[in-house]
Structures are given as C-alpha cells and as structure tokens.
Design the sequence.
C-alpha cells in the first residue's frame, strides 16, 4: 500500500453461515464439556474432526464416540504475525497431538511456558467456551499425577 | 499421447507491482511469449489462466485477461491449485495438446497479491486449508502450517535454525543475479536469524515475500513445432501430480509431503527419468523448510539428509544438482498463480543455455530439468520434467 495512484474499491463485508446440522452433536457436547469423534459403523474408521459421511467406505452410518482427550504432542508453532481477524489476540501457540484413541487433533496449546513445550509431552484436549459464547477446544499440559 | 513442447516464454518483473492491474501485468508476459514462438494472438485456440485471485478486484481474471490481450473467442479456462496453480494451468494446456484437441495453447500464470494489506493477505492464505477446523478458532497461518513441519523435522533429524537459514542465503545469492527477482540482494545467516519471528521457528527471512507477477508460455504439438521451424523446442517429458488432505490433523506425519513424493514418482516414471538425471531444478521454497523437504520428497537425497546437502553446497551451481538458481520463491518472489509457470520459463531458458548473466547458467550435459510446485502445504503437488 503506497502512494502509487489507485482507486479504492467499494467495501464488501462477507461472513458465511457454516452449516453444522450433521455434526451438531459435536458442538452441543462441547458446551457440555465433552469432545466427540465419529466412527464409521461399517468400516470402523474413527474421524476427528467428526464427519457425517465416511470418505473411506462411503457409508453414512456413523456413531458418536467420546474422546478421552489424552494425547502426546507431535509438533507446534508460535504464531506471531496474526491474520486480520486475530489481530486482537496475543500471539498464540498452535499444536498437533496424537490422541490415545488413534486420531490426531490440532488446537491452541495454553497454560504452559514456551520453554516448557516439548515434542512428546503429554497433553489433554479440553473444551473451551469463549467470552462471546463461541465454543472450541484447546490443549493443556496433562496433569502430572493421575 | 502426442508430444508437447514449450516454444515461447514470457516473464514479468516480480515484486510490488501496484503500478499495473492484473490485465496489464499478464500482458507483460503474454506479448514476449507469443513473439518468441513466432505466432500472433489469432493463432491461439486455447488459453489456460492460472490465478487464485481474491486479493485483487477481478473475480473472473481469465475473461478479463483474454479480453485485454485480444484472445476473446479462444477456448478459455481458469485453473486453481493454490500455490501450484501455475503448474495446474500448464497441465491443462499440456493435456489439451497431448490429447490432440488443439495444436497450440497459451498458458498464463498471474497474481496480484499486494492490492490488499499484509494482514489481509495472511488471513486469506491462512483460511485456505480446512477453514472451520483449523482457521476459524485457531487462526493458523500459512507460515504456521510450514512451521509445524519445521518443528517436527528439526526435532526428528537435528536440523537447526542455521540450517534453514542456509537455504535463504543460497536463494538470495541467486536472486541477486536475477533482474526479474523481487529481492535482488544477498543476505547472511545472521540476517535470517536476527529477523523477526513470523511463526516460530520460521522468521521473516525464512519466508517468501508477498508478490505481484506474471509468466506465460506457448505450448505446441510436435507437428506445430516442425511447421513453425522452432530451433530449440523444450519438451515436456512428463508431469506427475497428487494431493494431500486439507485438514493437517488427518495426515500421517509432518517431516515430508506425501503428495510431493507421489507426484515425483509419477513424473519420473512417465518421463523415464530418474532423480540422478536431473541437472537443474526449481523447487517450491515458499519457506526454507519447504526446500529441504523437497530435496527429500524428490529423491535428491535420503529422508533426513536435506539440510546436510545444503550445508555441503550440493544444491548450488557447481554442486550435484543446482536448485532455485533464479532465486526461488524465496528471493524471486511468489505470485502464487504465476509461480508454476515461472518455473517452466526459467527451466526453458536453462535448457536453451541462454540464461543471463552466465554466472546463473547451470552446466548441461543431458539437458533434463525438473519443476516441483506445491499448493498449500502439500494440499496439491505437481512435478514437471522438461527435456531438450
């Protein structure tokens, strides 16, 4: 963006209404403090994020399975340069972990100092409710004692 | 399947090109490509335009560009494969000729990414993957996607931030020699390490810039090559392709791109060429880690050895296989729809042995070159092998 001659275009604000009817249970349960995956009743494949149709065997018969959330950290990054819609956030850490049930998950990793984050550390995926009412989930370091 | 040759190439200056719109920018490449091929706009029966768009005002760039370049009436399509869009456009032109449907095709790659501010560009790129599950709540950025691979790779193989920096230093060295490059200056390892963190462990100088630019090529059938008496046709020996999941957490691991492994094996098999035959390569170095993984995915070295061959200088001119000696995405710039076409332009010039300055010309014995173009983080991959 410079002083080179330009015409500023008309402004258009776009937001999408993302359909979640077929995975509504996931979002409802998240609010109740539970994290669910879907499992194909025909071939047994477990999906997280959950899906309504199995891309493996093409069955639409899926069942809901609650996840323990227990996992092991596979990789992570600290996002410093943030997108426009995340400008009001402090820099955040995005991580991917292998969950006990065999699927992987991607989420923010919170409640841990940067220097203490290590690949292979045990983490727990837990639901999170934002101040504005949106729901998501995040990783926290697993409790030392169980 | 008929043989297909590159018979004309054009390439704009890459960089902050706010003095031109997308149509004017495309014209800068189309005109020299047609002139080199010795044909006019009226000879072109099919045009494939690679452009991702969204960062500039035209929603139908192929239509706008064809109109501006006097190509209206020709068969026309617009292709998208994220950062591999240019290669997908080349593939579209290639198949149109190889199938016998047409005997000439014009492939245009173009992107204008700087009509929006940096953070909006970061947002638009970050959204491209698995929007609901990886962006909506987690704000993952494109540097962030590759940073996840960098962290896993460094942890697994012991590569360091200095090793990644060496890729940027090499590509800036050649970018400094390329008058069409966006960043025409040499940098040091210290410059990379002291630049600000974008998505740890990747710093500013580990990342390609945000770029405006265009590139165009004219493709022709064997018969047309004879008819036009083309002196030095460069043949497309084979194209391989594959894809990966949009959702990163569905993937098996984070130390290489499966789509690139599959695409390269397909390209080698279709062209009857092996990795050791390649004499010059363009690989997708949108981030320094990407070039290291590319060496391994392409079979230039074993898994876990990519950073070692950079240390040894094996991918510089004079080494085993010169890579990105036009500056790569890192220094030449990365207008995402144009990049795949730009790679073919550069390799065509390398194979014709007409690169200037001569210090940027790779030595040729068998005249075999490879372009590796990744869309997203291995969401798409195209590998194209050229031969003279």
Sequence:
């Amino acid at each position: 963006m410079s002083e080179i001659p330009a015409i500023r275009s008309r402004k258009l604000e776009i937001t999408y209404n993302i359909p979640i009817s077929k995975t509504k249970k996931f979002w409802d349960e998240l609010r109740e403090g539970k994290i669910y995956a879907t499992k194909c009743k025909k071939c047994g494949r477990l999906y997280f994020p959950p899906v309504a149709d199995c891309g493996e065997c093409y069955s639409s018969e899926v069942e809901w399975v609650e996840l323990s959330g227990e996992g092991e950290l596979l990789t992570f990054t600290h996002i410093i340069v943030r997108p426009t819609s995340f400008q009001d956030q402090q820099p955040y850490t995005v991580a991917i972990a292998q969950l006990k049930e065999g699927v992987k998950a991607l989420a923010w990793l919170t409640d841990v100092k940067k220097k203490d984050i290590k690949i292979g550390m045990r983490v727990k995926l837990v639901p999170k409710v934002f101040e504005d009412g949106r729901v998501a989930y995040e990783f926290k370091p697993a409790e030392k004692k169980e | 399947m008929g043989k297909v040759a590159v018979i004309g190439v054009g390439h704009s200056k890459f960089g902050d090109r706010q003095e031109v719109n997308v149509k004017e920018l495309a014209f800068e490449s189309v005109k020299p490509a047609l002139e080199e091929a010795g044909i006019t706009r009226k000879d072109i029966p099919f045009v494939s335009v690679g452009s991702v768009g969204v960062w500039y005002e035209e929603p139908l760039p192929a239509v706008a560009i064809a109109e501006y370049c006097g190509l209206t009436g020709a068969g026309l399509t617009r292709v998208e494969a994220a950062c591999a869009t240019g290669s997908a456009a080349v593939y579209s032109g290639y198949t149109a000729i190889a199938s016998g449907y047409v005997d000439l095709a014009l492939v245009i790659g173009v992107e204008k990414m700087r009509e929006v501010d940096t953070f909006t560009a970061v947002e638009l790129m970050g959204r491209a993957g698995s929007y609901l599950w990886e962006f909506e709540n987690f704000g993952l950025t494109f540097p962030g996607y590759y940073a996840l691979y960098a962290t896993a790779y460094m942890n697994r193989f012991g590569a360091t931030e200095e090793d990644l920096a060496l890729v940027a230093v090499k590509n800036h060295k050649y970018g400094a020699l390329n008058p069409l490059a966006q960043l025409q200056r040499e940098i040091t390892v210290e410059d990379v390490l002291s630049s600000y963190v974008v998505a740890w462990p990747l710093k500013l100088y580990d990342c390609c810039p945000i770029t405006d630019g265009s590139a165009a090529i004219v493709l022709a059938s064997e018969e047309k090559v004879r008819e036009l008496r083309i002196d030095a046709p460069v043949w497309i020996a084979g194209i391989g392709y594959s894809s990966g999941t949009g959702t990163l957490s569905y993937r098996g691991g984070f130390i290489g791109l499966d789509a690139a492994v599959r695409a390269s094996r397909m390209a080698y098999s279709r062209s009857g060429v092996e990795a050791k035959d390649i004499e010059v390569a363009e690989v997708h170095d949108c981030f320094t880690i990407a070039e290291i993984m590319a060496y391994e995915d392409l079979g230039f070295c074993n898994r876990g050895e990519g950073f070692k061959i950079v240390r040894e200088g094996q991918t510089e001119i004079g080494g085993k296989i010169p890579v990105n000696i036009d500056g790569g995405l890192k220094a030449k710039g990365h207008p995402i729809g144009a990049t795949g076409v730009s790679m073919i332009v550069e390799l065509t010039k390398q194979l014709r042995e007409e690169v200037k300055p001569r210090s940027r010309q790779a030595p040729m014995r068998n005249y075999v070159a490879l372009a590796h173009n990744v869309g997203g983080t291995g969401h798409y991959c195209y590998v194209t092998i050229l031969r003279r």
Notes: Chain B is about 35% helix and 20% strand. The first strand of chain B starts at residue 4 and ends at 11.
